[in-house]
């Protein structure tokens, strides 16, 4: 215990000294976060500095092994680092599908050469990854995917189309599910990695209801993928895919924790003011916010519990589905309330005062939360079957 | 501290689950109800709780107890909830013990041994109206001689008609609504001019309406500081709210387990009804709500045990969330059982009744959400 207290003091002192002031403000949306990559975009010099300092300690991925660029921290130390960063308001130095999704899958299923090649670059934010999962005809029924990879001796030849590929137009590499056997649905899928600069890869951003285009259509036309980029066994990619989905769901569930920014009650107070008792002058909205805040606080505890149980190997393997379901539904509810609290002021689409319609666009963006990474209904199916052990129809 | 039970706590859970499940299953409660048992609990079972060490869980080791905390007490309460066991555990081993921790050496010496041995039952007299509003305490305690005279009424006092000790929140200064000016008293059974009127509730538990027609007590009956009762009252409320939340969780978890079990057995249209997606999704949603409530409760218990400044609010969140989750669990339970869920013969309805009583105890979800909002400044 005293070891951990010592570690906490050391971490706090290091963060105080090394985290630039500009990185102790919450990020304003995805654009203000650091995504790394071959051509990184830093919103300020401090962002670059912060990434370099954290990466040098392995603290962009504190619980990964040191030999792969991680910090080698145990679960208790990782929690301390997270707590101290939260306490001091330190931003996450790196937002990365490599960290949140691919890394854990490579640690479990990758071979030594793949780990050595990819993990340290992920940890240092040198390669930005995207995820090639969904296809136009393979959404909730992901395993029906049709993008095919033909065996051409030393390489696979990949042809097909992915959709909803987050930031495909900005990514350097893709982890991709491909069909290597058409005679078996789940046992004919393989998990491959390739460079988005490969000949035959093209992307087309999709304009969404939010007015943004974070997702792309991604096309593969005779793309050559070296055989050594196969992760796990041929035709056993579904196991890797599911394992990675668990991590994706953990990541998405964190949305339920809410974003830094103006707290919901504060938005409502700015719109409506206080009554003569000093309470929000709209009792019905106040009650809705108060009940929401109960669930939000309870979910924060759930997130802490989930991470603790996960690190200790005590979490049910399907628990990420519960977290994803609850967190995303909570986040949608939060943004409905933000819109109600902001009133007509939250409806602006373009003005500078509204930061380019940030509230309305964020509200619309959240509607995808319960679709991406497996819909809420898919998560409920998984909970029913794998946790509650209810029978299949 | 990680947010899951440690090895010792897991062992306690296993033994509490086995003990309560074997000695006081739902049939025990049904038996007391059918016999119209006037005490509202079984003294022999309370003695067994004592032999297990449960009655002294929160009593410090130096005073003969186990010196455990809210996490451990919550483990026992969850099993009490799961089995719908009528028990003075919450009011006595938690509420009264927490009150007495603010009391004098004489008060502790008088009551801790009797609670430890399972001989004493205690009640908390806080509410005065149909809704929990502790700051609105109006029952007066006026100076009389070298003691006090208590006048007024209390309601919803669980075990109030049989309690050996009644902890009473009374007003010694200020007006109803002020947190200043409240004083706590320890009143012994049989005090003159104290009248208890028992009422059976929907869940077959018995509460009392207490009338204080000028009950005279000596100054020794004061718990803690005169006019300074709000502090210890807050500590009592933290402990019984987080305790009631744990009991509620047990009620909700018991209802869910019974319901999911039924979904796997019952056949209609030639299929097990648990294979229908309409029911699967409702059951899965319920699971999620109960998991989130469980996390909020454990978080609050750990903060209470660490005497953390955030504990009071975490307790409010825990009780409010437990109210939401268990209210859903018992309603889904009855609905998914269909017609049989409406029968007295089947146990699922008992969960609904017990859930309602506990949701109302020591502040319901609405009250607590309002309190949380006020603390957040809106």
Automatic annotation (TrEMBL), chain A:
Alphabetical keyword list: FAD, Flavoprotein, Oxidoreductase
Every Acyl-CoA dehydrogenase/oxidase C-terminal domain range: 235-388
InterPro entries assigned to the protein according to its UniProt record, in alphabetical order: Acyl-CoA_Oxase/DH_mid-dom, Acyl-CoA_Oxase/DH_mid-dom_sf, AcylCo_DH-like_C, AcylCo_DH/oxidase_C, AcylCoA_DH/ox_N, AcylCoA_DH/ox_N_sf, AcylCoA_DH/oxidase_NM_dom_sf, Mycobact_Acyl-CoA_DH
Chain ranges of the Acyl-CoA oxidase/dehydrogenase middle domain: 130-223
GO cellular component: plasma membrane
UniProt GO MF annotations: flavin adenine dinucleotide binding; oxidoreductase activity, acting on the CH-CH group of donors
Keyword DNA-binding: no
Keyword Oxidoreductase attached: yes
Superkingdom field: Bacteria
All residue ranges annotated as the Acyl-CoA dehydrogenase/oxidase N-terminal domain in the record: 49-126
Cofactor(s) this protein requires: FAD
Family membership: Belongs to the acyl-CoA dehydrogenase family.
Matching PANTHER family: ACYL-COA DEHYDROGENASE (PTHR43292), ACYL-COA DEHYDROGENASE FADE29 (PTHR43292:SF3)
Name under which the protein is recorded: Acyl-CoA dehydrogenase
Automatic annotation (TrEMBL), chain B:
Sequence ranges assigned to domain Acyl-CoA oxidase/dehydrogenase middle in this UniProt record: 137-200
Acyl-CoA dehydrogenase/oxidase N-terminal domain segment(s): 7-119
Gene Ontology molecular function, alphabetical: acyl-CoA dehydrogenase activity; flavin adenine dinucleotide binding
Pfam family, one: Acyl-CoA_dh_N
Cofactor(s) it depends on: FAD
InterPro entries: Acyl-CoA_Oxase/DH_mid-dom, Acyl-CoA_Oxase/DH_mid-dom_sf, AcylCo_DH-like_C, AcylCo_DH/oxidase_C, AcylCoA_DH/ox_N, AcylCoA_DH/ox_N_sf, AcylCoA_DH/oxidase_NM_dom_sf
Keyword list, A-Z: FAD, Flavoprotein, Oxidoreductase
Keyword Flavoprotein: yes
PANTHER family per UniProt: ACYL-COA DEHYDROGENASE, ACYL-COA DEHYDROGENASE FADE28
The family this protein is said to belong to: Belongs to the acyl-CoA dehydrogenase family.
Name of this chain's protein: Acyl-CoA dehydrogenase
Originating species: Zavarzinia aquatilis
């Amino acid at each position: 215990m005293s070891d951990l207290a010592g570690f906490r003091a050391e971490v706090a002192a290091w963060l105080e000294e090394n985290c630039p002031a500009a990185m102790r403000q919450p990020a304003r949306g995805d654009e203000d976060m650091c995504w790394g990559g071959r051509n990184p975009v830093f919103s300020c010099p401090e962002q670059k500095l912060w990434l370099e300092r954290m990466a040098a300690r392995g603290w962009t991925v504190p619980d990964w092994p040191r030999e792969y660029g991680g910090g080698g921290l145990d679960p208790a130390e990782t929690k301390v680092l997270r707590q101290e960063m939260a306490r001091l308001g330190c931003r996450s130095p790196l937002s990365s599908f490599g960290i949140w999704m691919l890394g854990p899958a490579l640690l479990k299923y990758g071979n030594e050469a793949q780990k050595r090649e990819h993990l340290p670059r992920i940890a240092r934010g040198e390669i930005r990854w995207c995820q090639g999962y969904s296809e136009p005809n393979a959404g909730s029924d992901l395993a029906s995917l049709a993008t095919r990879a033909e065996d051409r001796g030393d390489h696979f030849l990949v042809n097909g189309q992915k959709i909803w590929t987050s930031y495909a137009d900005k990514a350097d590499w893709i982890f991709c599910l491909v069909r290597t056997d058409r005679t078996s649905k789940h046992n004919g899928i393989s998990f491959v990695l390739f460079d988005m600069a490969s000949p035959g890869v093209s992307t087309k951003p999709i304009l969404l209801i939010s007015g943004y285009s974070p997702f792309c259509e991604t096309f593969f036309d005779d793309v050559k993928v070296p055989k050594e980029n196969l992760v796990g066994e041929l035709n056993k990619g579904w196991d890797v895919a599911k394992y990675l989905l668990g991590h994706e769901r953990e990541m998405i569930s964190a949305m339920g924790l809410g974003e830094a920014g103006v707290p919901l009650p504060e938005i409502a107070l700015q719109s409506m003011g206080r009554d003569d008792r000093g309470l929000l002058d709209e009792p019905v909205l106040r009650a809705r916010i108060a009940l929401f805040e109960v669930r939000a606080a309870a979910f924060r505890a759930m997130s802490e519990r989930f991470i603790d149980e996960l690190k200790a190997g005590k979490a049910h393997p399907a628990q990420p589905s519960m977290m994803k379901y609850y967190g995303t539904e909570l986040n949608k509810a939060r943004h409905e309330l933000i819109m109600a609290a902001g009133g007509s002021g939250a409806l602006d689409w373009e003005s500078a005062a509204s930061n380019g319609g940030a509230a309305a666009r964020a509200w619309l963006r959240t509607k995808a939360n319960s679709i991406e990474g497996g819909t809420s209904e898919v998560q409920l199916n998984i909970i029913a079957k794998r946790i509650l052990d209810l029978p299949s129809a | 501290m990680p947010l899951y039970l440690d090895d010792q706590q897991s062992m306690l859970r296993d033994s509490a689950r086995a003990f309560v499940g074997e000695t006081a299953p739902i049939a025990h409660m049904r038996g007391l109800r059918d016999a119209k048992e006037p005490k509202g609990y079984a003294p022999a079972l309370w003695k067994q709780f004592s032999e297990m060490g449960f009655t002294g869980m929160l009593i410090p080791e130096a005073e003969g107890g186990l010196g455990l905390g809210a996490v451990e007490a919550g483990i026992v309460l969850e099993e009490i909830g799961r089995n719908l066991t009528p028990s003075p555990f919450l009011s006595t081993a938690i509420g009264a013990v927490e009150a007495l921790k603010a009391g004098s050496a004489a008060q502790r010496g008088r009551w801790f041994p009797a609670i430890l041995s399972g001989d004493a039952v205690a009640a908390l007299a806080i509410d005065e109206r149909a809704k929990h509003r502790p700051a609105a305490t109006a029952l007066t305690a006026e100076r009389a001689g070298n003691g006090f005279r208590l006048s007024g009424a209390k309601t919803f006092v669980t075990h109030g008609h049989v309690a050996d000790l009644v902890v009473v929140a009374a007003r010694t200064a200020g007006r109803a609504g002020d947190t200043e000016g409240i004083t706590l008293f320890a009143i012994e059974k049989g005090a003159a001019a104290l009248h208890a009127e028992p009422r059976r509730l929907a869940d077959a538990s018995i509460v009392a309406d207490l009338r204080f027609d000028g009950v005279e007590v000596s100054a020794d009956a004061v718990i803690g500081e005169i006019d300074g009762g709000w502090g210890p009252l807050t500590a009592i409320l933290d402990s019984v709210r987080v305790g009631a939340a744990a009991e509620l969780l047990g009620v909700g978890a018991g209802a869910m387990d019974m319901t999911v079990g039924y979904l796997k057995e019952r056949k209609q249209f030639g299929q097990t009804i648990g294979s229908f997606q309409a029911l699967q999704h409702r059951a899965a949603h319920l699971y999620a709500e109960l998991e989130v409530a469980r996390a909020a409760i454990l978080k609050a218990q750990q903060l209470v045990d660490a005497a953390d400044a955030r504990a009071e609010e975490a307790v409010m969140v825990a009780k409010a969330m437990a109210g939401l989750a268990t209210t859903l669990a018992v309603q889904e339970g009855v609905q998914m059982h269909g017609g049989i869920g409406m029968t007295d013969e089947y146990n699922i309805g008992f969960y609904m009744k017990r859930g309602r009583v506990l949701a109302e105890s020591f502040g319901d979800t609405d009250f607590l959400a309002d309190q949380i909002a006020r603390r957040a400044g809106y």
